[in-house]
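note to self — DONT lose this again. spent like an hour looking for the file last time. sequence + predicted structure for the chain T wanted, 336 res
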Amino acid sequence: MRRRRRVALISAVTVAALTLAGCGSATPKTGADGHRQITVLLDWTPNTNHSGIYLAKANGWYAKAGLDVRIIEPGANSNGLQMLTTGKADFAISTEEDVTPAVAQGLPVISVAAILQHNTSSMVALTSSGITRPRDLAGKVYGGFGGQLEKALVQQLVRCDGGDPSHIKFVQVGDADYRVGLTKHFYDFVWVFDGWEGIQFTDIDHLHTVTMPFIRYQRCIPDWYTPVIATSQKLINGDPKDVAAFMAATKRGYQEAIAHPREAASALLAAAPDVDRTLVEKSAGYMSTHYTDDPSRWGWQQPSVWNRMTAFLRSAGMVTGKVDVSRAFTNRFVGG
C-alpha cells in the first residue's frame, strides 16, 4: 500500500465550475437519531495517519458530540479538495502541497489541522547501491509517482549537497510496490514515508537500506505539513459548531493515539482488518512519537512553515502569483 504524493493542479475553468458548485448544498444533514452526518474522505487506504479519526469513532467521541461520522476511501480519480468544494465531503485528508495551489487558484478550502507536525519522508536506497548522501544520487535512477514536487525536491537536495541534478534519471512508477523495483534494480532510490514504507522495508522485509530523512536537510528544502485535515470555508461559515465538535473529538483521538499506540493500532485494524497487523502495530508506535512535539498542541500550524513551502512551490513553478497563507490554514479549531 502506498500513499499519494501528487499535486493536483486544477485548471482555471475547473476552479470556476467548482466554485459555483460550492455555492450549493454542502451543509451536513441530520439523521433520524438527531446526529449531524459528517463525511470524512481519506487520501488513500486506511493507515496510521488516520488513527486518531478511527480512535475517536471507535470510542464514541463523535457520537457523544452529536456527530455521525462516515469515513470513506477515495475513488481512483477523486480529489479530496474538489470533493470538499462540491459538498461531497465535509472533511478530507490532504497535504500542504495540495491546499496551497488550490487556495492560490481560488478554491474555498482550508487546512484545519496538521496531522504530523514535521515531515516524515525520506529518500531510501539499498546499502549496496553505494549511496550515502544526497549528492550521491547524481547519476542514479529515481523511481517515483511522477509528481512535479518529487522532481523539484530531489533536484534541490542533490544541488544543495554539491551534486549535479541534471544527471538524475527519473522513472515514473506510479502506485506500485517500490520494494520490488529496488531489489530488482529497476531504479536506485525512492521516496518513502518513514512511518509506513520505511518500517515495511527495514522491520518486515529486512532490507539493508540507507535513509536520507527530509527533516535532516532543512537548510536545503522546507519542512511542511503532510498530511493535513482540510475542510471548506463554506462549512466553517455555515456550521462552525459542527466543525468545532468534529475537530475536538479528532484532536482527542490523536492525543489518545499518542498516549496509547496499541489502542490506535487496534482501532485501525478493526476498521481495516486486511492491513498487515505487524506493520500497523510498529507504525502506531512510530507515529505516537511523531504526530507532534507537544500533545496539547496537536494539529497546530505555523505561518512560517506555510510561507516557506509556498515559496518552494512557487520556485518549482507549481504556484503562481501571491498567496495569502492566512487563507490556507487556521488554528481556530485545534486550540492549544
